[in-house]
Each structure stands twice: as C-alpha cells, then as structure tokens.
Amino acid sequence: MGEPARTRHSHEARLRAVRLVCEAGWRAADVATALGCSVRSVQLWIERSDRGTNPAALTARKPPGASPKLSDAQRTRLAELLDAGPEAAGLAGQLWTGPRVAALIEREFGVAHSSKYLPELLRRLGRSPQKPAKRAVEWDEEAIAGWVRTDWPRKKKSVGGSAPPSSGTRRPGS
C-alpha cells in the first residue's frame, strides 16, 4: 500500500490535530494516521501554533506566485476569440502562435503577457500554441507534384542504375 494522497486539511482539522497532541496527549503519529496526513505535517502545525497557544497561525495561506493577469471573464472571452480563429481577429493564416496570442491579449485586454508563460495559460484554456510550417513563399504544390510524377522517375533511373559497387565498398564478412 502506498502513502496517502496529499490533501489540504481545513483549519478545523489542523486545530483538532494540535489539540489532540497538546491537550489530549496523543502521539503525532497517531493523529497523522487518524487524519490521513504525514507525521511531519502534524509536527509543523504544532510548531506553527506555538504548541497550541496561537491557533490563528494555522489558517490557510494564500498560494505563492503572482496573481493571474486575466480575470475569469477575460479568460472566457479569450477562449471565445481563440475559437473564432486568427482570421476573425484580423490576422492572416489559421494558426495561433505564441506571439499572436500575446498580441491579441494586449490588444483586447490591455495586458502585456509574456510569451514565456503563454503555454501555461493556453493549457488552462484547453489549447496549445501552434507552430507554423516553414515553407518558402514560392512553394507551389502543383509544380512539386508534377515534378515527382514526371521528372523524379527519370532521374531515379539514370542516377542509381545497375552500376557495380565502387572499389571502396566492402560487404559484411568479406
């Protein structure tokens, strides 16, 4: 059996754990088993609360990191704009690249968003950044298909042929 899954415990659960150890005399290991948490968590709660004298120290803390730059409503609107496609936003082509999404966010919401963090934002919206195919402007599918159909078979016959191997070629085992 593996370790119990990590969960966030409520303020009440942390208070109860500290009281059981400090007032009722339970062992930290027994409290941890009863709450489904680690012994170290119970020990930290006891230390943080100054052995139960400062219960306010056990309140949940705000997660670390910066606050999101876009509100929930703005993220919903961004998802709608992405669904409509780049052409609806006045951009040529069918791909949403990182710089395009960053420009859209700045234009629509007035928020400068680093393209470094866009993949995370897009993943939260159920999308991913897309990379354009790198092709020359002169790329002509019809001309390429015609060359493959007519010229390539001729070139293939004349290049390989049935010439004997060069003197430098060795076969395995010889």
From TrEMBL:
Species of the source: Alienimonas californiensis
SUPFAM superfamilies per the UniProt record, alphabetical: Homeodomain-like
Region span, Disordered: 150-174
Transmembrane segments: none
Identification of the protein by name: Winged helix-turn helix domain-containing protein
InterPro entries to which the protein is assigned, alphabetical: Homeodomain-like_sf, Winged_HTH_dom
Ranges of compositional bias, category Polar residues: 164-174
Domain annotation Winged helix-turn helix: ranges: 93-149
Pfam families found in the cross-reference section: HTH_23, HTH_33
